[in-house]
Amino acid sequence: MMFSSKYSFMGHTLSRRDDIISILYILIFLINGRIPLDKNTMSMRQQFEKMQKFKVYNSAKKYCKGKSIHFTAILEYAYKIEFDEKPNYTYIKFLLKKILLDLNRVPMEMFNWKSK
What is the domain-level CATH number for residue 104? Predict the structure, then answer.
């Protein structure tokens, strides 16, 4: 539930777009140490309903607060991908590298997993 895309809450059939969104939600969680509305004091049903409303009605910018602000552009792109559209993985990789450069980190060749 925490990492489900907003489209899953809307009852849509899931696609590659939703996989990308879920991966971004996980990265946001790992970077910030929490996700919006992550409250242990709520029942599972309350958490589900609050998370559903938050994801469906809020923008990527609202979701990417704190240290994860850099993921806003990627999440906005992922939200715009149509169900049957092939994601532009080159563009996503470019945005990920841009985040590293914006943080004064140099993308290292050791993390390039392309087969040679």
Answer: 1.10.510.10
- In angstroms, the CA 50 to CA 43 distance is 11
Q: Is 51 helix (H, G, I), strand (E, B) or coil?
A: helix
Secondary structure letter of residue 114 according to DSSP: -
**pTM for the whole structure:** 0.80
At residue 88, what is the residue type? N
**Integer Cα distance of 49 and 3 in angstroms:** 14
Over pLDDT 70: what percentage of the chain? Answer: 85
Residue 61 domain-assigned (yes or no): yes
Going by C-alpha positions, the residue among 11, 92, 93 that lies closest to residue 55 is 11
Q: Report how many helices (DSSP H) and strands (DSSP E) the chain contains, helices first.
A: 6, 0
Q: What is the pLDDT of residue 75?
A: 95
Residue 95: domain span: 6-111
